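ugh ok so i messed up the first submission bc i forgot one of the chains. this is the corrected input, ALL of the components this time, i swear. 287 residues overall. if the numbers dont match what u have on ur side tell me asap before i send this to the collaborators (the ones from the other lab, u know who)
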Amino acid sequence: MTVFLEVVVSFLLVFGAFVMLIGSIGLAKLPDYFTRLHAPTKASTLGVACILLASMIFFSVQLGHVNLKEALISMFLLITAPVAAHMLGKAGLHYKVKMADSTQNQHLAKKAYLQQHPDDK
Amino acid sequence: MNKVRKFVWFPTPYHSILLWLVWQILHDFSRGHMVLGAMFAIVIPWIVAPLSEKEAVAKKTIKAVIYTFRLLIDIVASNYDVAKRVLQSNRSLKPAFIAVPLDIKEPVPLAIFTSSVSLTPGTVSVELSEDRKWLYVHVLHLEDEQQLINLIKDRYEAPLKEIFGC
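and heres the new structure output, hopefully the right one now
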């Protein structure tokens, strides 16, 4: 393993961890349920992708052949993360989770809620 | 379902290829698994295809590849954007809901579109209206509503419409 590759792998690991850290901070500090959805969906994709890329490079060099399993993991993550976020958001909408008062266009949330529960005025 | 379907060897050829490839990657391309993977790739679509919609095929392959790469770049850019907002004070945040009018109706392009919206510019899609005409989106920080709607439509919906030809 050359020094150059080691630097690349370390950089990717640290950068990925940093992105995940920011995502976690966002999860803790943002004001309401819906804004909290944003940080982890975005950060988890990029952060995990960076760490997996580092792992892919490291093990490809170590084992001497191209290792694609991590690419598969990032692909699945790319497909499932937005779906999970969508379902969480949807659930929040239908349980009428309290949102920050500064949220604009709150009538849209009500409209979407009434579509699924037409008798609940 | 009582309707008797005509037997097709490969009801979803692209899914078969994908399934085989994924199996190979998981098992490091060993010879035995090539045969086993081929068996799975042939048999599983027979069982699954009647249950699902018709396989969606991208009509413009090059455009699809370009779209994928642009999406990856946008994910990085939006990460930077969200990180910036997270590290700023909560008081400067202007969260909002917006409703994006939809032109796409087919399920697969629609799924890709909503996922792209969730992954990229500081937005998470939260609900699809019953008639599939509106997508309700939560925005972390909204400056100009119409501009954002236009951006989403031009950047993600228009290319997807072209790719899937719908």
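quick check: Chain A has a mean pLDDT of 81. that seems consistent at least. Residues 3-116 of chain A form one domain.
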